Description:
Elements: H1 3-13, H2 21-29, H3 56-65
Helix pairs in contact: 1-2
Amino acid sequence: MTYREIADIAATKLHKEHMSAQAVGGAVGRNHIEIIVPCHRVVGSNGSLTGYAAGLLIKKKLLQLEKIDVSKFRIPKESEN
């Protein structure tokens, strides 16, 4: 699921015309109770693994542990180092 998809669902449930995907990403990133919305499961709408405080390689490993096919996702070049 992408931040945009989460924002669209939240906007509908809150009866709002629009909700920012960036705002949702910020809220997910500040979530200290990850069992509710594990932020490692949220991916970029362009197919990239984005926005994980522990690092994108850790995010990829967590997804692999959950048996998610990560071959369809990419890690942006600047995050590989």
